[in-house]
Amino acid sequence: MLGIVSDAYRAHESGDSVNPDSYFLRFPEKPDSRIIALPAFLGADVQLAGIKWIASFPGNTRRGAPRASAVLLLNDYETGYPIACLEAANISAARTAASAAVAATALRPDGFAGTRIAVVGGGVIARNICDYLNVAGCAPDAYLVHDLDEASGQALAEHVRTTQNRPATFTADLDAALGADTVVFATTALEPYVSTPFKPGQLVLNISLRDLAPEVVLGADNILDDVEHCLKAQTSPHLAEQLSGSREFVTGTLAGVLNGEVTPSPDRPVIFSPFGLGVLDLAVGAFVLGEARKDGSTIEVPNFFGETRRW
Fold first, then answer.
1. Backbone angles phi, psi at 155, to 5 degrees
2. How far apart are the C-alpha atoms of 98 and 104, rounded to whole Å?
3. Sign of CA dihedral 223, 229, 235, 240
4. Domain residue spans in the chain?
5. Which CATH class is domain 98-273?
6. How far apart are CA 215 and CA 219, in angstroms?
7. Which of 41, 121, 188, 291 gives the lowest tally of CB atoms within 10 Å of its CB?
8. What CA–CA distance (Å, rounded) separates 108 from 204?
9. What pTM did the predictor assign?
């Protein structure tokens, strides 16, 4: 999965993709909820177009249900015909977590021994990120978990202890979490609440995109997944652009780091902000579809198309 995501980033960077803006369906009476459409085409070895339709309803967690649900439609590049419909909440979580792990290994090349990782947010995405960090070989001495809901934070800490056999504790003190060597944000925050600057050597995985005040972003080296996409929709980097009046604070893209073209300064904190690209969903979705075909778990729908010939 890590290789699939890395390859998709490189293909996108080289121009072998089409990734339009995401489209947001918002609800005036539910300002914290949204449904997002992410259309894309990925060339390279994938050669598929498609669209992910993902709903984010944070209120679901109060009922014990996951915040996000999604479907992914894949279209044949030659004919344009849709060829598959996949459950995509897991695909979305996997590609998000894998991108965080790819960034973590690339931006902390000396490894994680002797360091602590703090995770702000104790939901499904946070759990997947911890799992993928472990798969990627990110082995800190300990984890620290912070969440406004202590039960969620405690559950994530227990998950890390159980699956990684690694010390993990919950803290109600946000400042304690912000002092870790690596800080992961995986929340549903709609606006910034972190105004404390990070220190040189700290790595911040800004997965939820809106937790950091623009001044915090401007005080760091910034790696994005895609500059045009990330500087939209009132993300923390977008607010930093508005505040500074320029994009000079952007150090480069993750693909640039992977290709050896971008090297963040060791004298500044490093923030990775991924807007989340539809091409990643296509790459992971194509892999899932291929595996399902191999093991025979796909479900074919006969006569799905009303007409298959013009005459």
1. -65, -40
2. 10
3. positive
4. 2-90+278-295, 98-273
5. alpha beta
6. 6
7. 291
8. 11
9. 0.94
